[in-house]
Amino acid sequence: MEIFNKRIDSIGSLSPESRNVLLNAWESWSVPKDHFLVRENAIAHHLFYIKKGIARIYYFKNGKEITEWLALDNEFFFSIISFFEQKPSNLIIQTIEASEVMGIHHDTLMALCDQYHDIERWFRKAITGSLILSQYRMDSIQFETAQQRYEKLLTNYPSIVQRVPLSYIASFLGITQETLSRIRSQH
Amino acid sequence: MEIFNKRIDSIGSLSPESRNVLLNAWESWSVPKDHFLVRENAIAHHLFYIKKGIARIYYFKNGKEITEWLALDNEFFFSIISFFEQKPSNLIIQTIEASEVMGIHHDTLMALCDQYHDIERWFRKAITGSLILSQYRMDSIQFETAQQRYEKLLTNYPSIVQRVPLSYIASFLGITQETLSRIRSQH
DNA sequence: AGAACAATTTGATTATTGTCAAAAAAGATC
DNA sequence: GATCTTTTTTGACAATAATCAAATTGTTCT
Predict the structure, then answer these.
(1) Is residue B72 within 8 Å of B166, Cβ to Cβ?
(2) Rounded CA gap, B108 and B23, in Å?
(3) Residue A53 in contact with residue A73, Cβ under 8 Å?
(4) pLDDT over 70, % of chain B
(5) Model confidence over A112-123: pLDDT tens digits?
(6) Which CATH class is domain A2-143?
(7) Which of A177, B71, B137, B152 could form a disulfide with A167 if both were Cys (CB 3.0 to 4.6 A apart)?
């Protein structure tokens, strides 16, 4: 619970009342491995935070699963387009380990944004953070080789290799699993 | 001016007062071709809107210019990381045609966000739009061939080919100019 | 128009990654 | 522990795009 509060605070400051209201708006779940947090063609009702475990965000393209994101411990994650536009999307979110997940409902968050100006600002800053991350990732995909991207991933998330199947990591990096296997075999 | 107001309104609704205040906070400039809107290692003070003309957002990587974005008529654009974090960045913004540009200063916008809750909400929605666009672009880069990306660009911005040098388009698409020239030669 | 410069195209070659197929290794089940 | 299943690795080959170099075309300026 401590780390979660710190993560919330690190995004932006809130008045004691707003902070309290926001913190209490989150639900908590303990879910098993392979549990669906968002199903295919469903509307994403929640913005999630993963306290412990791993969630995989993926979709099907030409019959193949494409992993778009892997959320490890203490990260926020959500199905961006479905959540904001409240329409069904082909993005699926599923745990790949038994996980402890927190979530805030879209309508709850929007109501809080309406009611408290500083929560609106906090959320604006949270989205800004996502946008910046998205920019960095785009540059990485466009201008780095598969090998460089893999090495960067190893540096940033050393535990990912032990915990996530190779095929998921490969499609997250935008390469085939054969290519990743070959990168890996040369140390 | 009409189109600009409509673009503002399309992002999110505002009270008459807030709308008025926001609209009046923008400055207008007529700038020649090759004019710098943000120089290298400078802080991006403005969020821009291009009324007429084209702006190119680019940076240097290993001595080569990489075009990250091309903003055509009636688009918002800015140096995301520098603007939000108010720190120098290697992103350069430069017009490539004589252009009419509008801009709002970071401090002005932040002050308005502080003062008016609905402007804060408007801005939150604007950023959300950027984030969604960024997601789409990432998928495009990761999972489409250079040819597909070029054809999509032609469909969405048919005038871009007449107005933007090939080398800029190529690096925007994440390919070399030779590759683009070859794609182009086969219709 | 002609010179000087910039932008684009073409050619030959190399590097990277994808595709398809099969083998090997690791994990799960009874 | 032997069998079945899934995951990962390896191999051969094809496709895509990058690199380097040169030729061609287009633009600008006097």
Answers:
(1) no
(2) 12
(3) yes
(4) 99
(5) 999 999 999 999
(6) mainly beta
(7) A177
